[in-house]
Amino acid sequence: MSGDGEMLGPVQLLICGFDPDAELRGEVLAELGRLSDAGTIRVLDVLVVRKEDDDTVSIVEANESGSVVAVLTGLHGDEEAPELPSEYEDIDDDDIWFPADAIPPGSMAALALIEHRWALGLKQALRGTGGALLAESWIDPLDLQAVGLNA
């Protein structure tokens, strides 16, 4: 992780679902590695989980720093939960996104925390002009198709 004063690019949590009986041969990790080697992204952490039919989630595999994704997503267990800043005290659970909710029961998922290294130049340019990123969002492929773009 970037703790030495190095600028950090935009960070995204990807949740990729898999059939629990599927043979995972490493294609996804290989592609993340290729993108990392090219300097496009940096993989900060990866965690593989299984969600049972009763909605319980268990960690199947974690890399050396798998605890980062576990803590960010609440999949680390309540006994290790970090204390939230006071400004979060009045937030209702209905207003919080729980990544585990995105995982269908009876499936597995890989949660990858990635830094978008390609965006560092843009971030520096924004800072240099006194600008700031105000919002960002992924556009759903169906929305793109609705406006004539094939995704």
UniProtKB/TrEMBL annotation:
Pfam families listed in its UniProt record: DUF6325
Name listed for the protein in its UniProt record: DUF1269 domain-containing protein
